[in-house]
Design brief:
single chain, 208 residues, 5-stranded antiparallel sheet, 5 strands, NfeD-like C-terminal, partner-binding, NA-bd_OB-fold, transmembrane, Membrane_assoc_protease
């Protein structure tokens, strides 16, 4: 058993920091070995063999969910569940509330601290690909919206709210946020789309 409860903080802190760090940067397994070493010491210090493997498996499951979320899903849901499982695995393994609190804090802070490695060591290519995928998806979404807005140019519609000078218009049954060139329009006024891009729709009152 660890001599003092506060030691649990440093053991789980370094264990988690190195394990997640191995996922983020290219360290040829060095961080993985260090992380596994720290986490093994933690569970071995507090648990009997049966519980050692059970709680160790919980911790690994949480870490796996972090990997799956970061590499494939990338929406944060599995990552959050994984982080909670990791915290629970070390907390439930502790012999006291104090040790549990220290160990849980170590996991959380260790996870955040691992981000520092990104500024020091070369990143793994997989995370660069994830970032590129997000960028491309965002650009595709913007371009799609831009094309939709441009198709409205010259179309006629109705102001469904007062425009002071921004409001909502309806064109062919669809509602859009729009603005005038500074003139105020009343709800129900007939409008025509003069200009549109991916960020705004400019309209004028029919007959003006």
């Amino acid at each position: 058993m660890l001599a003092y409860d506060w030691i649990a903080f440093f053991v789980t802190f370094f264990g988690t920091m190195f394990l997640i760090g191995e996922l983020l940067v290219r360290m040829k397994g060095v961080f993985a070995l260090l992380g596994v070493g720290f986490i093994t010491v933690y569970f071995y210090s507090y648990l009997e063999p049966d519980m050692f493997f059970l709680m160790g498996a919980m911790y690994v499951l949480g870490l796996t969910l972090l990997i799956v979320d970061g590499k494939f899903v990338n929406d944060g849901t599995l990552g959050t569940i994984g982080a909670v499982i990791m915290v629970l695995s070390v907390s439930l393994s502790a012999p006291s509330w104090g040790a549990g609190l220290y160990s849980a804090s170590g996991v959380v802070l260790g996870g955040f601290s691992s981000l520092v490695f990104l500024k020091v060591f070369p990143k793994r290519q997989v995370w660069g690909k994830v970032a590129l995928k997000d960028q491309l998806s965002s650009e595709m979404g913007y371009n799609s919206m831009n094309e939709t807005y441009k198709s409205l140019i010259g179309r006629e519609g109705t102001a469904v709210t007062d425009m002071r000078p921004t409001g909502t218009i309806q064109v062919d049954g669809e509602e859009y946020s729009a603005t005038t060139n500074g003139k105020w329009l009343e709800k129900g006024d007939a409008v025509k789309v003069e200009h549109a891009d991916g960020t705004r729709i400019l309209v004028k009152k029919m007959g003006a």
